[in-house]
Structures are given as structure tokens and as C-alpha cells.
Write the C-alpha cells for this entry.
Amino acid sequence: MGQISVSVGSEAKASAGAAGDAHTLRHAFLESMASNSTSVSVVTTSDGERPVGVTISACTSVSADPPTLLVCINRRSPAHAAVSANGVFAVNLLNVAQRGIADTFAGRSNSNKPFDFSCCTVTHGTHCAPLIDEAVASLECVLIAQQDIGTHTVFFGEVKGIRLGAPSPLLYCRRDYGRFEAFKESV
Ligand SMILES: Cc1cc2nc3c(=O)[nH]c(=O)nc-3n(C[C@H](O)[C@H](O)[C@H](O)COP(=O)(O)O)c2cc1C
């Protein structure tokens, strides 16, 4: 197995090769994160007239007391402005059969109109965000804080309602989808 070690310190940044080093570090970072297996969610909200959604992998539990999570959304995404303005959003953890929905809300479906809700059925939650039917879980959140970091904004949501659904989550790793399978043997 090959090993790559990359580090860029303040001295390296000051050197003539800093741009190249930063590029190498960025590449290694993207490769590392590509191996970070995650669940796949669609963050839904409304822009005041229409439902809006975006596929994300950057979702983390923050605290159970009170139930709080965070999502990271690119500032270029239309969902970014909508979440910020609406102040409420839902995180829909997709089930393993909902790959098409993930691709649609990532704008890269071959068969569905990008970002269009006709790829799924939704139920309107009590906090003004559409809940995707048959998701593993749909968590309705009220936006409590946000922080810009680089190209993205971290949105913190306090969870106000949860609808539990299908058992098997859709996973993403190495730029591809998969399913969770527990080890059969004990280690
Ligand atoms: C599996 C998967 C996970 C993604 N995770 C995120 C994420 O966590 N945050 C985010 O802003 N965009 C994420 N995206 C990208 C967005 O869904 C979407 O593709 C992007 O905002 C489209 O705009 P662009 O074409 O300008 O990049 C993800 C896409 C896929 C397919």
C-alpha cells in the first residue's frame, strides 16, 4: 500500500513552491475525504414560493441535549440562500433505493430534471420544509446559527420533529454509492 505524506507549514507557505504545495495538500485532502464514508441526505426547505433541495454528505450530529445537527452547504447552491432566508430546513437521510433522488438533488441525474421534486413524493412537515417520503429519517430543524468557512456555510439546526422511515441508509464512499452491511463474524 502506497503512503503519501503531505504537510504545508507556515515556512512552506512563504516559499516559492507554496502554491504547488497548497495544491498538493488540497488534492490529498479531497482524496482523504473521498474515503470518508458517509450517509447521503437531501436538505429541503422553501424559497418562499417553491420547495428547494440539495444533496449533501456533510451532516453531523452535534448534541442530543437539545437535539442539534449541522450541515455544510456550498454558498453557490440555491439551497444555501433558501435555508438562510427561511430559517427552517429538513434533513432527509436517504434510503438505499433512493440513489436517483440523490443524483437529482446533486444536479447530475440522467433521467430527472435537476433539483426537481417530481423525482420523489413529499409530505409537508409542521415546520415548512418538505419531507421526502420513505427516507430513513426526516429531521425538521430550526436554524439556530451559521458560520461561513471557505466556500461553504455550516448551518446548525435544532431538531424540532423527526419522522422515521425505511431501515437501510444510502451510503457514499470513494465517489460512489453503497449500502451498509454489518460483519457476520465476530472479531
Ligand atoms: C453524494 C453527494 C454528496 C454531496 N455533499 C455535499 C455537501 O455536503 N455539501 C454541498 O454543498 N454539496 C454537496 N454535494 C454537491 C451538491 O449536491 C450539488 O451537486 C452542487 O451544489 C451542484 O452545484 P455545482 O454544480 O455548482 O457544484 C454533494 C453531491 C453528492 C452527489
